[in-house]
Amino acid sequence: MVNPMNLLLNQIKPLLTCSAVEKGAIQCGYCTPGMIMSAKNLLDTNANPTEQEIRKGISGNLCRCTGYQKIFEAIKSIPNTQENK
Ligand code: FES
């Protein structure tokens, strides 16, 4: 039987490992789940978003720590590969 939570974690793992942690886009981590899910949704529908599209894609999330620049850099750094979709 497939555990839906494991399936979700496996789907977002590349986002977590190659972007947010390595680029320093996580400070307190409060906004991170929403940012990750928004980034995944954006990249699922637009494999090569512009900076403006990234800003719009995560606009429903507020981050009080990072100033957003590292989050933008993290999302832009995600390789455009099928395994990250
Ligand atoms: S990392 Fe603290 S609110 Fe975003």
Biggest pleated-sheet summary: none
Q: Which CATH class applies here?
A: Mainly Alpha
Helix content: 55-70%
List the helices and strands in order.
HHHH
Which CATH architecture?
Answer: Orthogonal Bundle
Average predicted confidence as pLDDT? 79
Unreliable stretches covering 5 or more consecutive residues: 81-85
> What would you call the shape?
globular
Tell me the fraction of residues in β-strands, as a range.
under 5%
Distance between the termini: 22 Å
Count of DSSP-assigned helices: 4
How many individual domains? Answer: 1
CATH topology call: DNA polymerase, domain 1
Task: Provide the gyration radius in Å.
Answer: 12 Å
Query: What is the CATH H-level superfamily?
Result: [2Fe-2S]-binding domain
Number of extended strands = 0
**Structural class designation:** mainly alpha
Cofactors, ions and other ligands in the entry: FE2/S2 (inorganic) cluster
